[in-house]
Design goal:
about 425 residues; Aminopeptidase; binds zinc ion; elongated; 2 domains; eight-stranded mixed beta sheet
Amino acid sequence: MDFDLMKRQGDVAGNTLLVIGGIQGDEPGGFNAAALLATRYRIDKGTLWIVPNLNFASIIQRSRGIHGDLNRKFDFLPPADPEYHLVKEIKEIITNPQVDLVLNLHDGSGFYRADYIDSQHNPKRWGQSCIIDQSLLAGVPFGALEEIGQKVVRETNRKLDNPAHRFSLKNTQTRAEDQVMQQTLTFFAIENNKPAFGIEASKNFRTNVRVYYHLQFLEAYMQELGISFRRDFELSPQGVEQALKQDIRVALNDHKIQLDISDIREQLNYIPLKKGSKLEFESDNPLVAVLPYRNKYRIHYGNNRLGFLRPQYFEYDDSLASVLVTVDGLSKEFKMGSIVPVAENFLVDIPDGYRVNIIGFTRKGVRNERGFRVHKKDIMPGYSIDKGGQVFRVEVYRNDKFAGMLLMDFRAVQHRTKLLALHQAEQ
Ligand SMILES: [Zn+2]
């Protein structure tokens, strides 16, 4: 459950922005924004370093901090603390000479206002604020904290979804007045001559609205640092909501199995996992984990618990790396673990000695389902991996050993094609 450091470098050199999400595990606006920044933006100039899941174990547990508040451990911390090494590692990243500016993303309660208005809008609240520890960090680029903070707040306030959501700059005057805040990540950064800001979206909003505001801030800071970028979704609360649900995948056991978990059923049965070994998972999305839960596995995506896998254990066979599939009349080799977009029909071909099992498809008296042209209507929708009844498992076996799985995906392919183009451009 280590955190990820995801580096996104443009072709043209420039400043480096470090973005940290998930220091507290129950603030999904911040860590989802950081994850979208890492997965759905492309940088043309300058560099992003993104740690989207600093306190990953707490994110998965939906806890502010399973070992206490991680954002109070940046002053003194005894080596016996379970998060000692985590803190040490992130401190090294923060103080790396390449880092020009640090952002720590939070979700805070209510609405910060300099004057008391009511219980939700007052100086003690944190939501909808940009936080600085002091006005000025002398002698370093971007050290004009107050000036920069005012500017990005102004930028973001031009893009409010509702005028009541406006942001304010909050100066905690940490050095002089706030001993608690002296233990925080941003104050550690300041003490090490790194300009740092906290961004707090209000917990009064749904996650997509919080993420929307975080991304507005992130884009304003990138502009301030001269980092140029592209994103592949519309920046609006609706656009963010969609982006958070799209194309979330996890690969299991060396990519023999890959699942699109965006719309996954609450439980998938008879998932062929490897006998006698620990489940390995891998995802492009830094908020995804697959962890044992009683006699099953649970799929986590940030604070969300998407569903369970109920395993059936097999020996694995590694002799077949890919499978020939004819999709809508065109034949192509697909690696094990592929998710294959299909418009009309597919036909799976494999060498003798292997057996195909299309889950939810049956022909009387047939055990090996290779060589059948299969339409969606030929498969019982209840066997899809998604709630929408559109994505189906094709499993390949050799004798009693599992050789790999493919998914046949009958959903609209438009957004996937777009994404693919973006990822290819990055490589
Ligand atoms: Zn927080």
